[in-house]
Amino acid sequence: MSPGEITSEPTVDPDAPLTWSTGAMTAAGFAVVCAEVTSRERPSVVECGSGFSTLKLAELVQQRGGRLVSLEHDETWATRVRSNLAAAGLAETAQIMLAPLEPHPLARDGLPWYAEHPLRFLPRRIDLLLVDGPPAFEPETELSRYPALPALAERLALDAVVVLDDIDRRGELRVLEAWERECDFRFEIQPAERIAVGRRS
Ligand SMILES: C[S@@+](CC[C@H](N)C(=O)[O-])C[C@H]1O[C@@H](n2cnc3c(N)ncnc32)[C@H](O)[C@@H]1O
Questions:
Q1: How far is the CA of 201 from the centre of ligand 1 (A)?
Q2: Buried b (16+ CB within 10 A) or exposed e, 136-170
Q3: What is the domain-level CATH number for residue 106?
Q4: Candidates 8, 50, 194: which one to mutate for ligand 1, based on the most atoms within 8 Å of Cβ?
Q5: pLDDT score at 13
Q6: Phi and psi for 154 in degrees, rounded to 5?
Q7: pLDDT average per 10 residues of sequence, the chain (201 residues)
Q8: Which atom of ligand 1 is nearest to the CA of 24?
Q9: Best label site of 7, 46, 183, 200, fewest CB within 10 Å?
Q10: What is the whole-number distance in angstroms between the Cα of residue 199 and the centre of ligand 1?
Q11: What is the DSSP string of 138-155?
Q12: How far is the CA of 21 from the centre of ligand 1 (A)?
């Protein structure tokens, strides 16, 4: 997301329906994620940064008998996404894991990442990792999403797919460069979908 794309602060009304705001992934990018999920028997999906994507992805994951865990740093936003999941009957399938942003040993530029403790409760095997948080739209926070791959690599299945959103930004391109240099993943940039899709090389 870019400055100004999120048009309002997270609402205090936890029951307000989530909509496809401009802070969400593009529909085309989301379609790529859905195709990856449907190619799995019982998909185990982890998302960094929750929102409308969580709600829609949870529907698909539920149909496939899988599980979705979404890391969320903002308590008010977490409450709203949880409330929407519950209203849609998806609370058993999708879990919003509140993880405040804290200093992280893998972080770049001294930026915070998701707190260590909640990460221990993530699935031991992840088939698809969707990286769309923490927020990284300010120049000084552009490397905020870097820790996702090195921090979760050991949980990723051998044939796991990693999707990084907002690939039209300089920060996400720098994150990709670092991931490819340091991890055994290679990424295909899909500009129209505004994502990069990575698999083990
Ligand atoms: C890029 S957003 C995540 C969007 C989500 N993956 C989607 O596609 O719907 C990253 C963070 O921004 C916050 N956020 C998401 N949507 C928001 C909105 N409409 N208004 C305010 N904050 C939002 C949440 O804290 C979230 O973790």
A1: 30
A2: bbeeeebbbbbbbbebbbebbeeebbbbbbbbebe
A3: 3.40.50.150
A4: 50
A5: 84
A6: -70, -15
A7: 46 82 92 97 97 97 98 97 98 98 96 97 98 97 98 98 98 98 98 98 96
A8: 8
A9: 7
A10: 25
A11: SGGGTTTTTTHHHHHGGG
A12: 9
Question: Which residue's CA lies nearest to atom 22 of ligand 1?
Answer: 10
**Which ligand 1 atom sits closest to the C-alpha of 19?**
19
User: How far is it, in rounded angstroms, from Cα 128 to Cα 45?
Assistant: 5
If we measure between CA atoms, which residue out of 116, 53, 114, 50 comes closest to residue 77? 50
Burial class (CB in 10 A: 0-12, 13-18, 19+), 178: middle
Distance in Å, CA 183 to ligand 1 centroid? 27
Q: Is residue 191 included in any domain, yes or no?
A: yes
Residue found under tokens 């990424």: 187
Contact 53, 28 (CB under 8 A): no
Which whole-number Å values give the CA distances from 126 to 37, 110, 143, 162, 201, in the listed order?
Answer: 11, 27, 23, 10, 17
Number of structural domains, the chain? 1
What range does the domain containing 106 cover? 27-200
Inside any domain, residue 2: no
Q: Which of 132, 185, 177 is nearest to 160 (CA)?
A: 185
Nearest ligand 1 atom to the CA of 133 is: 10
